[in-house]
Amino acid sequence: MPSWSELEQFLVSGLALGGVYALSGVGLVVLYRxxxxxxxxxxxxxxxxAFLAYQMIQASAPGWAAWIVCILFGGVVTxxxxxxxxxxxxxxxxxxxxxxxxxxTLILFGAMELLWPPTSGATRSISLPTDxxxxxxxxxxxxxxxxxxLGAGVVLTIGTGAxxxxxxxxxxxxxxxxxxxxTATLGVPVRRVEAAAWFGCGVLAGFAGLLLADLVQLExxxxxxxxxxxxxxxxxxxxxxxxVTFIAAIVIGVVHDLLTPFxxxxxxxxxxxxxxxxxxxxxxxxxxxxxxxxxxxG
Length: 298
Fold this sequence. Notes:
Strand content: under 5%
Number of helices: 12
Number of domains: 1
CATH architecture: Orthogonal Bundle
Largest sheet: 2 strands, antiparallel
Radius of gyration: 20 Å
Structural class: mainly alpha
Distance between the termini: 50 Å
Number of strands: 2
Shape: globular
Strand order of the largest sheet: 1-2
Order of helices and strands: HHHHEEHHHHHHHH
């Protein structure tokens, strides 16, 4: 058993990782509520944006320009995809919508494998200036990058909740989640609302890819399958509650990293999102059955 002093640093890294999962999960939830599409290409879009930023930095481009390209690339690609395929997917089954985005994932993943083939033992990474600064808490070194990752998740969760509740665009998104056709008949510019949701989700994908390329590593599979942990958090929130999604994402990130020093469990830590999502969904299902049974008996 590792000591608490050994676990502390993994707790910090887990909170940072959970923050990235949180902002990704919230992006997935908002897009799903606005369009009904489960965007499985989220991780691949962020990964390709991070690789583009890496290539620019290797070519001696300013770091800030590379970061902006990474974030905007995610927004533009996602917006183009949503503009072209979004209307056609609007009336299809949820499974068809999800599989359609899985196709985009495979295309982007294949492009990364072709353009940036694996190196012989060398690892690629993007180092942000915030890695060089930070502070110490109870003997633990915390970088500003970790603070930004966790803070971004918190701010986005609170900001998105306020946005959906108090703005016209947010109200339109909530209305579309309930009934897209009725919302359109009320004069809401459905296409514009959907475009905003697609672009916003893509921007978050680029931002998440940039952070993960720094916190973890710049590797196609690692960043592409970021969507698994984010999706697990969104499913625990039943693709509706951004607050539950945030909490689930933090738990997934923390549990994932805390398993690292346990030698017997290290190889199984990638199962964390699946296990936690399965437990949560089974609990929700069981709770609904109990509530339904009590209503019938009452």
